[in-house]
Amino acid sequence: MSVQQVKLTDAEWQVMECLWAGDPMSGREVTQALEPKTGWSRSTILTLLSRLEAKGAVAGNSEGGKKLFSPLLGREDAALQETETFLDKVYHGSLSLMVSALTQRQALSPEEIRQLHQLLDGLEGGNRP
Amino acid sequence: MSVQQVKLTDAEWQVMECLWAGDPMSGREVTQALEPKTGWSRSTILTLLSRLEAKGAVAGNSEGGKKLFSPLLGREDAALQETETFLDKVYHGSLSLMVSALTQRQALSPEEIRQLHQLLDGLEGGNRP
DNA sequence: ATGCTGTGATTACAGATGTAGACAAAAAGG
DNA sequence: CCTTTTTGTCTACATCTGTAATCACAGCAT
Hints:
homodimer, about 130 residues, mainly alpha, DNA-binding
């Protein structure tokens, strides 16, 4: 059932994003990877990694001195959870309400719309036995 | 251009939800409306209303002693902003990526899918000159 | 006038979050 | 071995959030 109900903060999410990209990483690697985007100091990253570890979202293996961190919480799981929370809060849990709002504001590129269409068509095909 | 970049917390969002529902409301009305769902005390609500006022998300008109609060930030605007932030953070800004993730996890009811379909079809019709 | 009552403002406080310095143990280099 | 560098843990602290008690004042009832 994967890791339950872990709430990631924005900063933590960035760190996770890193770990999801290149699995076992040392603190330094994460720091370097995030440096351009965030400019956070080593300490900051390490703190975040600790908190994530405490939350059970990442595991730290300190075999032979050095410690390597890997995500325990999968990106898919995290994304899904975040999505549900978001949809509930903003669109009463309804995806179509969300899409509707976006289209009404013309916040979707034709490209996005095309892709969505394809997606849904594919779905129908797959669902029909 | 409506109110810029106001970030609403979860608690604040609930209060706004209230104000969006029945526009000018007194603090007491908001409190009563939220009581069943949240159980928050009058003080809590008033604090939240103040913070929202400070952020420029609601306006408080104290004509003739009593004070009435109305939203300055529209629900549509708030939702759109929240949506963009969310999409960027979790799905690199791509709605179809989100929908794809949802379908892969079978997190969409057939009903939702049907509605989405309709929505998109309607869109195409409207877009074709 | 005088004391309740309903209402907003002020103050409070614990826990979460963003951000980082100081310190200690371990590794690497000479 | 002893110094320099690396790396992780602890501690720190300002701000933001959630939540509320208390205060002060305006209006109503007596």
